[in-house]
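Exercise 7b. C-alpha cells:
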C-alpha cells in the first residue's frame, strides 16, 4: 500500500461516501506541508497554508504555489513523501499536481492543489496511537529531457 521510503499510495478509485465518512470522534491530526525545489530548477515552490487539521476519513484540499523565476518555459515534476513513514499506507491522494509533469511559462505562477484523506483504518491501527502530526512534503525537479 505504500511506495519507497514513506511515499504514499495514490487512490486510483473513488471510494463511496460511507468509506470517506469522517471519524469525528477520533483525535485530530495536524497535517503539515513542506515544499522545496532542486537546484537545477529555477522555480519557487511553497505551501499556501502551513498546516490543516483533519480526522481520518475527512477529505481535504490544500494548495501549493509554484513560480517560474526564469525567462524560459520550464517543465517540472514533483516527488512527495510522508513523515512519519509508517503513516504512508494511510495517506491517500485523490487528486494531485504530482501525478503529472507541470509546465510553467516564464514568470508564471500557479496554484497547485492536492486533494487527500487519511484512511479511516488509521484509527484501528495501534501503531498509529501516538501519531498526532503528519508532514506531507514535495520536492520539484526539472523534468528529464526537458
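Sequence design result:
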Amino acid at each position: 500500500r505504500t511506495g519507497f521510503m514513506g511515499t504514499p499510495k495514490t487512490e486510483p478509485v473513488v471510494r463511496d461516501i460511507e468509506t470517506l465518512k469522517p471519524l469525528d470522534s477520533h483525535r485530530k491530526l495536524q497535517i503539515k506541508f513542506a515544499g522545496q525545489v532542486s537546484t537545477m530548477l529555477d522555480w519557487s515552490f511553497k505551501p499556501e497554508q502551513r498546516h490543516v487539521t483533519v480526522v481520518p476519513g475527512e477529505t481535504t484540499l490544500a494548495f501549493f504555489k509554484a513560480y517560474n523565476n526564469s525567462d524560459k518555459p520550464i517543465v517540472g515534476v514533483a516527488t512527495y513523501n510522508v513523515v512519519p513513514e509508517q503513516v504512508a499506507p494511510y495517506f491517500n491522494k485523490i487528486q494531485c499536481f504530482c501525478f503529472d509533469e507541470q509546465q510553467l511559462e516564464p514568470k508564471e505562477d500557479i496554484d497547485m492543489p492536492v486533494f487527500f484523506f487519511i484512511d479511516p483504518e488509521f484509527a484501528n491501527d495501534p501503531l498509529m496511537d501516538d501519531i498526532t502530526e503528519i508532514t506531507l512534503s514535495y520536492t520539484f525537479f526539472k523534468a528529464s529531457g526537458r
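Instructor comment: The radius of gyration is 16 Å. The chain has a mean pLDDT of 88.
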